Amino acid sequence: MPELSEKTHIPAPFTIKDLNTENPRWCVGCGDFGILMGLKRFLVEEQIPPHMTVNVSGIGCSGRVPFYVNTYGVHCIHGRPITFAMGIALSRPDLKLFIHSGDGDALSIGGNHLLHGIHKNFNCVFILYDNQIYALTKSQSSPTTRKGHPTNTQPQGTMLEPIVPTRFALGLGASFVASTADWLPDHFVSTLKAAYAHRGFSFVHVLQRCPHFDPENFDNKSSVWFSFLTHEKGIPADKRLADKTGVVTHDPTDHEEAFRIANSRRTHFGLFYRNPEKPCYDEMIRQRIANAKPMSRAGILDSYKI
Ligand SMILES: Cc1ncc(C[n+]2csc(CCOP(=O)(O)OP(=O)(O)O)c2C)c(N)n1
Ligand code: SF4
């Protein structure tokens, strides 16, 4: 496979400075800063070649990430980063693929596509930036907005119970489901490492602060409201916080228990589930193409005859 071009061909070992581009246009205190820095730290620690990396995003504040990291990138249309990324996964399996999508982008307009991305289990790391609001368009209720929270679309309070992203992904049979937060840098990087090591659709849920539109959400100064999931096959708990938060031992091969934890009222960060055996649709398609016997055009059309 040819490399994309020399443009971003940075000689190894590269550093975070090599991955910097312009200054992000996010509000002061936005959780997207932590996620972007964690992504860069992860790329540097793993020395994933920038010229072989593609960051694909939808639309939203989070959608700006591909501009801010010196790799290849696509700022796609709203709700469609998975569609675009799937094409890359099918045609260029040698590229390292990361998808960035907000809770509106992923679970509203892109919900249908997320469903099929998870189901097809194509090889990528999918990062869900869950600030529980439509931020770029100035505060409308999203599928993960907490019940009662006032927004521009529901000023008297959001009416529905929120969708729980980890439960959604587990319910669809995702092969990798993890959760972390923008203010847990070490845990975030460990989560990306585990997701990247997994072959298939790695669903990474990240709680992301939006201090501009919802400063009360996610009390990141306190650690009493969440626990870490740990296991020898899982993701290590944040060492600084584990004593305060509590740690739950959870075997990530246990799907039923993962569901029970995702269903509980308490927030859990860590690896919920991993199944390395689930087949990947992109690999199956490539295999089928490789095994295809030469056929005339008429023969191909006839094979679809009803
Ligand atoms: C087809 C289409 N519909 C609607 C919009 C307007 N729009 C842009 S971003 C957005 C929601 C962003 O929310 P989210 O995905 O949660 O990302 P955040 O800004 O919170 O990171 C909407 C509705 C659009 N750009 N394109
Ligand atoms: S509006 Fe919210 S999500 Fe968007 S940049 Fe500002 S703090 Fe971040």
Structure description:
The protein has one domain (16-303): Thiamin diphosphate (ThDP)-binding fold, Pyr/PP domains (Rossmann fold). The chain has eleven helices and nine strands. It has helices at residues 16-19, 31-46, 81-91, 103-109, 111-120, 165-171, 185-197, 242-245, 255-263, 281-291, 297-303; strands spanning 53-57, 72-75, 96-102, 124-130, 176-181, 201-207, 226-230, 247-249, 267-274. The protein is globular, with a radius of gyration of 20 Å. Bound molecules: thiamine diphosphate (TPP) and iron/sulfur cluster (SF4). Iron/sulfur cluster is lined by residues 26-27, 30, 32, 61, 131, 135, 210-213.
Question: What's the SSE blueprint?
Answer:
Layout (H helix, E strand, L loop, with lengths): L15 H4 L11 H16 L6 E5 L14 E4 L5 H11 L4 E7 H7 L1 H10 L3 E7 L34 H7 L4 E6 L3 H13 L3 E7 L18 E5 L11 H4 L1 E3 L5 H9 L3 E8 L6 H11 L5 H7 L3
Helix pairs in contact: 2-7, 4-5, 6-9
Bound molecules: thiamine diphosphate (TPP) and iron/sulfur cluster (SF4).
Thiamine diphosphate binds next to helix 4.
Characteristics:
alpha/beta; about 300 residues; binds iron/sulfur cluster; 11 helices; binds thiamine diphosphate; single chain; Rossmann fold; 9-stranded mixed beta sheet; globular
The count of β-strands is 9
Work out the helicity level: 25-40%
- Arithmetic mean of pLDDT: 95
Unreliable spans are none
CATH topology: Rossmann fold
Largest sheet: 9 strands, mixed
Cα shape: globular
**Bound ligands, named by name, code or SMILES:** thiamine diphosphate, iron/sulfur cluster
